[in-house]
Specification:
This protein is of the alpha/beta class. Helices cover 38% and strands 13% of the residues. Strand 7, helix 8 and strand 8 form a beta-alpha-beta unit. Helix 5 runs parallel beside helix 6. Bound molecules: glutamine. Glutamine binds next to strand 4.
């Protein structure tokens, strides 16, 4: 069996037992990147040399960290000291992170190996990775389809066996939706469970770092090394961290799972609905009690999310003014072409610099969100939009709190449809936004949620069978329960073990 076929957990075991070295593991994955990434474009930067040097150091020092020698790909929204962190934007094209994110320092201590930085929608705004300023990534199951977004590169590289683990961020679904589209497992932990120090902010009340892997056990493995309070992130929680790996099991007796009737809404593909029904059967066979529940506030989630996320983004992205970070428009050039009779030169030059920097540095989707957010926060509109959205958010939170007194977890689809073709929705932002209907609720409520492979669509004339992902949501800090239920499901099914065929080579 080739090393790239092993899960992170199996690699850790094999490395401990000396069956292979960290250099062998990393060169196998690096070969896979070299072979396929020119087409997939999951990575924005991949440094074979650097990754093999990290692995060699682990071999020579006999490092014993819990992730010793395991390759990890990192979404380009998380800072690694001395490396470019572009956020998929021209604005940060030349930005080199001056420090490690707390998560990166923790994973360094666990002796993980950083393979490279993965592609994403600009500033994590999008659902297809088509908004990246550096070109789109592809879905390994069909190169003509999107991998999802915004962490499309991170999902795609796990699906294509370019790495066993990757890190993403999830503000409204950006880990779970691409995990569903690419046929991998993706967890968004509870708000505050993993430190965000060194994660470039999109919408601070919603952002959370999350993980991609083939299965729930691998997610538990990396979450064990990542979760916990960080004094550098005041929003990180002091709630004690559980041993997520140790909590896995296969008996779900007594677990109560709710199936919201509203999730079977118009727009949900029949095939995904059929997968929900089948997953219910599997979970029941494992001992879970599944019953129908009602979550009427769900339908307002997308509207509330896009207002709140855009309002917060308009504030967070105000810092990109050309004075502090990254890109700065060349205002001297612009100055020359202006007539001498305009406003006083200094003020004008500064304003010009801001305008030019922001209009050249940001792409269209980011500008759309900044304008929407600025408008919704402006005097006269604040009450009608932002305040209303906050009220809906509170109602969603209340509804979920109440629901979790009756059931332990909520099961449903991750997305209304499987991955669509590249270009199919890029001209229609609203239809793309509506695809987030099932994922945004967890961010609005701050609760953890996981997406796992649970079927395939049927082949179409212009698209092969594509993966289907389902979602489990739980109350705050129920990561262990989510991972346990998912792992039990994965022990009873083989959807998560299927791999795409890349250029005739099984990945
Ligand atoms: N698709 C959503 C958006 O475009 C979610 C993005 C995310 O989670 N970063 O905002």
């Amino acid at each position: 069996m080739s090393l790239i076929e092993l899960s992170a957990f199996e690699l850790v075991e094999g490395l401990k037992q000396g069956q292979f070295s960290a250099q062998e593991v990393n060169s196998s994955f690096a070969d896979q990147v070299d072979l396929h990434d020119s087409k997939l474009k999951a990575f924005l930067r991949f440094d074979r040399q650097e990754c093999l040097e990290q692995a060699a150091k682990i071999d020579s020092t006999g490092s014993k960290g819990n992730l010793a020698g395991i390759p990890i790909a990192v979404k380009d929204v998380i800072c690694i000291e001395g490396q470019k962190t572009t956020c998929g934007s021209r604005m940060l094209e030349e930005f080199v992170a001056p420090y490690d994110a707390t998560l990166i320092s923790r994973l360094r201590k666990s002796d993980g190996v950083f393979l490279g930085k993965t592609n994403m929608d600009e500033f994590a705004m999008g659902s297809s990775t088509e908004n990246s300023a550096f070109g789109r990534s592809c879905n390994p199951w069909h190169f003509g389809s999107v991998p999802g977004g915004s962490s499309g590169g991170a999902a795609s590289c796990v699906a294509a066996s370019l790495t066993p683990l990757s890190i993403g961020s999830d503000t409204g679904g950006s880990v779970r939706q691409p995990a569903a589209f690419c046929g991998v497992t993706g967890l968004k932990p509870t708000y505050g469970r993993v430190s965000r120090y060194g994660l470039i902010a999109f919408a601070s009340s919603l952002d959370q770092i999350g993980f991609f892997a083939r299965d729930a056990r691998d997610v538990a493995l990396i979450l064990n090394e990542s979760a916990g309070h960080d004094q550098r992130d005041s929003t990180s929680s002091r709630e004690p961290v559980v041993d997520y790996l140790g909590s896995l099991g296969s008996d779900l007796s007594g677990l109560k799972i709710g199936l919201p009737i509203e999730y079977q809404s118009e727009g949900l593909s029949d095939e995904i609905q059929a997968s929900v029904v089948e997953a219910r059967r599997v979970l029941e066979s494992l001992g879970a009690e599944v019953s129908e529940i009602s979550l009427p506030m769900t339908q307002y989630g997308v509207a509330a999310y896009y207002l709140i996320a855009s309002c917060e983004a308009s504030g967070n992205l105000a810092r990109y003014d050309g004075a502090h970070y990254g890109f700065r428009a060349n205002c001297q050039e612009d100055q020359k072409s202006r007539s001498a009779s305009s406003t006083p030169p200094d003020a004008n030059r500064l304003l010009e610099m801001y305008c030019q920097t922001r209009s050249k540095g940001f792409g269209p989707e980011v500008k759309r969100r900044i304008m929407l957010g600025t408008y919704a926060l402006s005097a006269g509109y604040y009450d009608a939009y932002y305040l209303q959205a906050l009220k809906i958010r509170r109602l969603i939170q209340n509804e979920l709190r109440e629901t979790f007194t009756k059931v332990d977890l909520i099961l449903g689809p991750t997305t209304p449809t499987p991955a669509y073709r590249i270009g199919e929705k890029s001209k229609d932002p609203l239809s793309m936004y509506l695809g987030d209907i099932y994922t945004v609720v967890a961010n609005l409520a701050g609760i953890p949620a996981i997406s796992f492979p649970a079927g395939f669509s049927t082949e179409k004339a212009d698209q092969p069978a594509m993966p289907i992902g389902l979602q489990l949501q739980g109350p705050a800090f129920a990561e262990a329960e989510l991972l346990k239920a998912t792992w039990a499901f994965q022990n009873a099914t083989d959807w998560h073990q299927r791999r795409p065929v890349l250029d005739g080579v099984v990945g």
